[in-house]
Amino acid sequence: MTNQDNKIKYISYARLSKQELKRNQLGLENQQELINNFVRSRGGEIYKSFQEFKSAKDLKRDQLAKALSYLKDPNTYLVVYKIDRLSRDLQDLLLLIRSYKYKILFVELGDHQVENKSQEFYFQLMGAIAQNERDLISQRTKLGIKKYREKHNNKWGNPKGYNMDLAREQAIKARQLKAIEKREQAINIYIALKALNKSNVYIVNELNKLNIKTPNNTNYTTNNIRLLERVIKIKDQLDQI
């Protein structure tokens, strides 16, 4: 086998959903540039690039499948800019990195790449955050649709269509949604860390390091974690009904 045969090959994958494109999220070209810089810093170069405009709701993506097919070669690695560019589902993320023997690199992880099962902690933490962001996007979309419908069905009120009661109700719902978002974000991280047998004190420290606040916008304490555990227990009971 020649030295050329032993050389590591890097495959890049960049993704952007149509909704993200409308919100001016980091474009495919920018993702590609950051990936290129990352690979060059490792003394390599991109062998082949794949890009697509697709949602990350599942793994059924043509360009992703083509990119992953190259990982059959033991000397080939897939490089993605951020974890959420690959998937926003924690279980899908873990399935991918384990199935492909940790040959998927993420620019955002820098020197903290996941190379074996013992190094999955930080990856699971970031994956939980990505999954939480997906859930929040869904919630915001539903709320936006509801507000739009309420606005355009409002045929009464003043000539400009402004309804004070409706505005007040929407403000309350927005605050409630924000509180739910904060709690769900903490729950996802709690579950990910508990799966790694981390203590409540450890979880409190990690939540505060990540600047994740309680629904009341305060730092987490062990008392808050106990409240989270009650919420999780109630949700589990409701799911079984």
Plain-language structure description:
- With 241 residues, this protein is an alpha/beta fold.
- Helix content is 57%, strand content 9%.
- The protein has a 4-stranded parallel β-sheet with strand order 2-1-3-4, sandwiched between helices.
- The termini are far apart.
- Mean pLDDT is 77; it is low at 1-5 and 155-159.
Largest beta sheet: strand ordering: 2-1-3-4
Helix content: 55-70%
- The domain count comes to 2
Whole-number radius of gyration?
A: 22 Å
The total count of strands amounts to: 4
Low-confidence stretches: 1-5, 155-159
Q: Helix and strand string, N-terminal first?
A: HEHHEHEHHEHHHH
The description of the largest β-sheet is: 4 strands, parallel
Distance between the termini: 61 Å
Mean pLDDT: 77
Strand content: 5-15%
Q: What is the tally of helical segments?
A: 10
Structural category? alpha/beta
Core attributes:
alpha/beta; 10 helices; 4 strands; disordered N terminus; 9% strand; Rossmann fold; four-stranded parallel beta sheet
